[in-house]
Design goal:
Radius of gyration: 22 Å
Structural class: mainly alpha
Largest sheet: none
Distance between the termini: 25 Å
Oligomer: single chain
Mean pLDDT: 81
Number of strands: 0
Strand content: under 5%
Low-confidence stretches: 1-16, 467-481
Length: 481
Amino acid sequence: MQEEKQPPNEAVATDVSWWRIGFICSVLLLEGMSSSSINVQIAALGSSLHLTPVQLQLTASIFLVAYAGLLPAAGRLVDAWDRRAMFMIGVGVFGLGSVLCAAATSGWWLVLGRFVQGAGAAFSAPAAIALITANLPPGRLRNKALALYGSMGAAGFTLGLVIPGFLVTQLGWRASFLVYVPLVVAVLVVTRTIDSAPGTGARVDAVSAVALTASVILAVGTVGSIGETSLWASGGLLAAAAGLAALLVHRGRRRGTRMFPAGVVRSPRVIVGCVALAGLFAAIVASMYLTGLELALNRGHDEFAVGLALAPQSISNAAVGMWGGRLVTRFGPGRVLAAGMALVACALGYLGAVGFQLPYAQGLLPATLAIGSGVALCYPAASIMAVSAVRPQEHGTTSALLTVFQNVGGAVGLALVTAFGAVPLAGGAQGPEAGMYISAACILVAGVASLAVLSRNARRMQGTPGSTAEPVQKMTVHQES
């Protein structure tokens, strides 16, 4: 009898809260737009505010760093405190960051605004999922809402290339940040009508979150400023970053409150998934950044045209993404991950060799389509490989760890192309070709490191009596069922 009553209950939930759930899901739209829009905004920002190469790099990367550094603590805060309040705080902070960016009069002011945006996204994203699961019963409607939430990220990434690009061209770069404010206000107003969802009241280690974020910021900023600062200064900053990381590890061991469980961070397959996504997104974020600058500075494209030129990458990602899970089920995550990384690396190599010398239809267009398709293969493969290797109660923690590596990888990629002087300069004095090779190298390094981890695990398992190393490509994909 209970199963027969489930559909009416779901229908009631739809009548009461489905449109509100849609507004909650829209926060990922904001996050996706903010992540990609910087690729079409950066040239205008650089010329208007006279940004240095380090400031350009930090403007693009600090959002990723703030998101990655604060996400683990934000997830625990959402569980511990009122979920609706945490969601509203996160959305409000994101809106504040957008206003700060729009009002920026200097490079460091802009960097601060982007950091605040990233911090808001780090708090609103896990709170949105918590609100969805708290307000919808398990079953078809909840799954549909979570699918809608996930699709908002891809839609936001595409819209972030087009809408802000159009606004920069027509109204100036400040309007491209203010466009987020009306949606932020609408989400806050709607969220106030949703019932509160109290948390567990558990304590959260804020010091560890600050240490993680500060260490990543120091490391990324220092790598990007190599060549502009003295060797001693760079060494000192990197030592400070290492010290903060050591503090984070020490506090976790002493207090018994590790940010990530030991079983997760020591799993070879989790390590491979994290390393692969870090290398992949180092390449993707850096290559899009360089391409956007090249098109705007040296190819006569306005910001709207830059967004349209880059949009096929996200479109192909969405199209191929529908098949990613099925391919993993059939061929295994290891093979699909390797194929996706190889496809992206070859496309970047093509851009570095001849892609930018050819017409768009023969050069950049096929490369962006290949890159988007490769990412669509890699992301589900890496995620399934990692999540399949841990216990069900550690799935959320593992997903958060993958997100941290993904965002930190993107920030490191930007720092590397800046450190190697591979950022395009106005007048064609420096093109993006070297940066494409550096981006491809990030994928190759991640691939070699992944193979080394898997090979070491295979040897260790063979040396253990009664144990055999399970080939990654043979793993079952129980998440798909």
